[in-house]
Amino acid sequence: MSFGPDLGDIEAVLFDLDGTLVHLTIDFGRMRAEVKALLPQYGLSMEGRSTLYILELIEDAVRELKAQDEERARAFRREAEAAIVAIELEAADEAQVYPEVPELLRRLRERGIRVAIVTRNCRAAVDRILAENPLVYDVLLTRDEVAAVKPDPEHLLTALRLVGVEPQRTLMVGDHPMDVQVGRAVGARAAAVLTGVGTLERFSEVQPDLILARVGDLSEYLT
């Protein structure tokens, strides 16, 4: 299923990774539970944090701890990040690139369209995925390469600076409403794919420019 405008003027496409280019099942429930279990050990609770994404939950806890003790804040960060990275690495071992993705990225670059991958996943897990599933791209930014990760606009803006394309000539593609929202926040157009966590109902709330059953369908809009 798809709808959307003419995208013939697009000069760069920013792709989310997990659920967009790659079938990857990360156990976010387990990840959240492990971080949540750490909080009482540091005198913290989930109060006021229940709606935060896991990375933002960790950062919020670190900020509170820093006000008390820098070393405890660093220790919490080490433990929390080790817990989530272990889960990400497990998932990476089972990851598979969607079949149409390598050809899609190759064709985009042949047409002179710059390709960037922007992901909240860690570098170690992404490297493990791409070692088994090579992809062509111009820029890859995991959370380890940026000071602020999406939905903070700086994640996308950093990628755009590196590819040298203005937001107005850029398309952000992802499987989560967050991807649509952050694309809009930087002034880019946004496409949603239905292969990950996003549903038609969830995407209807953020109104992407384009909805695709799978990312390979993007080719027909970028001729």
Please describe what this structure looks like:
The chain folds into two domains: 12-24 and 96-221, Rossmann fold; 28-93. By secondary structure, the chain is α/β, with parallel strands linked by helices. The chain has helices at 28-38, 54-66, 70-93, 101-110, 123-132, 154-163, 177-185, 200-204, and strands at 12-15, 22-23, 96-97, 114-118, 139-141, 170-174, 189-193, 210-212. The mean pLDDT is 92. The longest helix is centred in the middle third of the chain and has 24 residues, at 70-93. It has a six-stranded parallel β-sheet with strand order 5-4-1-6-7-8. The chain has eight helices and eight strands; from the N terminus they run ββαααβαβαβαβαβαβ. Strand 7, helix 8 (200-204) and strand 8 (210-212) form a beta-alpha-beta unit.
Shape: globular
What is the terminal-to-terminal distance? 18 Å
Domains counted in the coordinates: how many?
2
Strand tally is 8
The poorly predicted ranges are none
CATH superfamily of the largest domain: HAD superfamily/HAD-like
SSE order, one letter for each helix or strand: EEHHHEHEHEHEHEHE
**Approximate helicity band:** 40-55%
Instruction: Please give the radius of gyration in angstroms.
Output: 18 Å
User: Which structural class do the helices and strands define?
Assistant: alpha/beta
Put simply, the count of helices is: 8
